[in-house]
Amino acid sequence: MTKRALTPMLLTATAFMAFLATCQAGGIAVYWGQNDGEVSLAETCASGNYEFVIIAFLPKFGKGQSPQMDLASHCDPSSGGCTGQSRDIRACQRRGVKVLLSIGGGEGSYGLSSPGDARQVAVYLWNNFLGGSSSSRPLGNAVLDGIDFDIELGGTKFWDDLARYLKAYSPKGRKPVYLAAAPQCPFPDASLGVALSTGLFDYVWVQFYNNPPCQYSSASGVDNLARAWNQWASIPAGQVFLGLPAAPQAAGSGFVEASDLVSQVLPVVRKSSKYGGIMLWSRFYDGLTGYSDKVKSSV
To answer: What is residue 7's predicted lDDT score, i.e. its pLDDT?
Structure first.
């Protein structure tokens, strides 16, 4: 059978459809673990709404401290009460959901004092949450997919070293260690700017909330967010996500109504080839508002 050349109109239509397909290839990441009354990890993944679930937090580590998790009322890591989460983690992974551990957060005692300290933290994370082995794995024997850097209190130094040490555990033929980060939207991020310049991060979910100069509002429109987004879309990372609160009460400012997200914000951010989707804080608040249900088909 001979092939006919495409007419200019067909070429234009084909290119447009390809553009639309590219524009709508996003997913949703959500933080889980910090709210009483939140559904379980397994139920979170069973919703089918999320491509990534980020377990929050490991808020104590580095500088000679014994690392310590905090999962609110879900379980008590200090008594070994969270090892049963392995079952839920595996259930999520069977559904194709990547499960990461978030280190840091807005409260806690963490930081790095030297490259050597960063290496020790990397060894701890590898042996206790990733593909290594330890007799005291807080979440049991399930192997998480990666580590998320939510560094808001721990200073500005040596996070790039930690990223390099963690990524070194991803040689060919072994399950990859994905690296993610949650910087603030003012560019560059004060804590993670150097680390993000390494090009080692697979996913960067930028917090476009609690920062009025670079977030969306119905009064000022999308221009401030668009300027910041274009800066973030230029970093050497795999994918960049638009981080948002899932309810008005989830943050001091920056909540975007679902209708505004779909009509005003997503058409701007989806233009970038780095666009990966949206991140929501958090599963608890998403359960209250059904935000991911409202926007999933448009992300």
So the answer is: 43
Give the pLDDT score at 1. 35
Say if pTM beats, i.e. exceeds, 0.70. yes
pLDDT bracket for residue 57 (50, 70, 90):
very high
C-alpha closest to that of 285 among 235, 244, 232, 229: 244
Taking the C-alpha atoms of residue 111 and residue 253, their distance in angstroms, rounded to an integer, is 27
Other C-beta atoms lying within 10 Å of the C-beta of residue 278: 28
In 10 A of CB 8, how many CB atoms? Answer: 7
Task: Tally the residues of the chain.
Answer: 299
Residue spans of beta strands (DSSP E) within 97-221? 98-105, 109-110, 146-151, 178-181, 203-207
Distance CA 72, CA 33 (A): 7
Going by C-beta distance under 8 Å and a sequence separation of 6 or more, which residues neighbour residue 91? 41, 42, 45, 46
Report the run of H or E that residue 115 belongs to, with start and end.
Answer: helix 115-129
Choose, from 38, 51, 107, 152, the residue flagged as catalytic: 152
> Is 38 an active-site residue?
no
261: its two tokens = 């997200």
Which option is the CATH number for 26-295: 3.40.50.300, 3.90.1300.10, 3.20.20.80, 2.160.20.60?
A: 3.20.20.80
Interacting residues of 84 by C-beta distance below 8 A, sequence separation 6+: 75, 140
Note the pLDDT of residue 174. Answer: 81
